[in-house]
Amino acid sequence: MCEDTHGIGRRALFVTGAAAALTLGPVSFAAADGQGPGTQRTATVSGTLPPGSPDFVYVPVEVPTGVREIRVSYTYDRPSVPAGTTGNALDIGIFDQHGTELGGKGFRGWSGGARTEFFVRADDATPGYLPGPVGAGTWHIALGPYTVAPQGLTYELTITLTDGEPGTPVRPVYPPQRAKGRGRDWYRGDCHLHSWYSDGRRTPAEIAALARAAGLDFINSSEHNTHSAHAHWADQAGDDLLIMLGEEVTTRNGHVVALGTDPGTFVDWRYRARDNRFGHFAHQIHKAGGLVVPAHPHATCVGCAWKFGFGEADAVEVWNGPYTPDDEVALAAWDASLVASVRNNRQWLPGMGNSDAHRDPDVVGSPQTVVLADDLSREAIQEGLRAGRSYIAESKNVTLSFTATGGRGEQAGIGERLAVDADTPVAVRLEASGVPRCTVRFVTDQGVLLTSDPLPVAGSGTVEWRTTPSYAAYVRAELRHETAAGTVPGALAALTNPIFLGR
User: Fold this and answer.
1) In the 8-state DSSP scheme, what is residue 129?
2) Which CATH class is domain 397-503?
3) Concatenated DSSP letters of 311-323
4) Is pTM, for the whole model, over 0.90?
5) What is the β-pairing status of strands 153-163 and 439-444?
6) CATH assignment, 2-163
7) Per-residue pLDDT tens digits for 236-263
8) Domain 172-396 fold
9) Closest CA to 221 of 235, 231, 209
10) Are 390 and 342 in contact (CB under 8 A)?
């Protein structure tokens, strides 16, 4: 065993167009002295990071030839801090001999703060990490001091190399990009889910079973900053469940779901808004066939609030998990963007909802996005989401039909435009089921212009309203639960994307 202590004074600080990175002195191992396969060598590294440390701290590890497995464990202190002050939180991952350059050529895994140890070898790896040969050269353990207490953050790494033959590499198998489907129909999905391949506690099999029980037709794999789960979903797909592949790109300035990318696509997360790099990686998501969906844009957790703007987005998550005040803020901000799109005659951004489920008691499929698509395929679902032909429901029990009809029988549905003259009478109609005692609100660019009486206890009802395009440039529907807070609206049971009115 060898020991090394990394003080902050030994750092080399680099700013390379991405988040600032601190690279420490290298860790080297003594020669194996011909002891043969199974020989293990261990090094222990410790150090302290002060408040204000860069986003990423790299510990170089010199890996000699003949290594079969690299294993890393770590600990760090969690001192008491005053109320309202963040304590210590240290994430971890690893890059291989191909380097740490932005783009992830050397990326081999990331577990954030979900695990205290991991291993990588050719035939297997800890969930969150990619199996593959342990090549000779300089590897880098990536530390992410997410938050640092005023006292600083003291850490200790234990690195173990095991010699031997590399083993047989794993050939990945991915789920198909099409399920049986029902032709053009409304399909239910949850596109923001976490398994044990990042910080979730459920296996892919458990998630797939819960998705089926929730009435879902499609889901999207979205682990934090790793695509390691992609090769572990094929067995869970079927004629009744389309499984798309993606990632939740978890930066320090907000999270974005890469929805339905090509299998094996990795999207780097090591940048902030001020680095002007997000556009490049949004383009990468699009090039890989995926959608860019900012997640929980007004969440209050450290690093969660969205700071990159919406110019590259295809949709935005306006409802994330159980409905909370930050969802209400996201909904209001989204509605304001709809008004701006009308005022400036520019493309509008559809809203969607996902569960962001990690573990019990998180409910898969609550909420869920219900999309009108030509088929149950990756391409068709994405096209429906991009077009905004969708509504959000709290569960499979909720079904909506929302239309606008002109004076000559012209009709438009969710996400569409009713192209009639400004003074043409328009009939707006919502049919709903599975929403007992919920109140319907019709929201326009002028605000809420209709609020219904509560629907019957049976949960089904129809609400109609008449307007003109000159009075309402768009109309969307919200269904709200009862509330005991006076005039404050209740939590959402469902909401639709808008129907636009006028030419």
Assistant:
1) B
2) mainly beta
3) TT-S-EEEEESS-
4) yes
5) unpaired
6) 2.60.120.380
7) 999 999 999 999 999 999 999 999 999 9
8) TIM Barrel (3.20.20)
9) 231
10) no
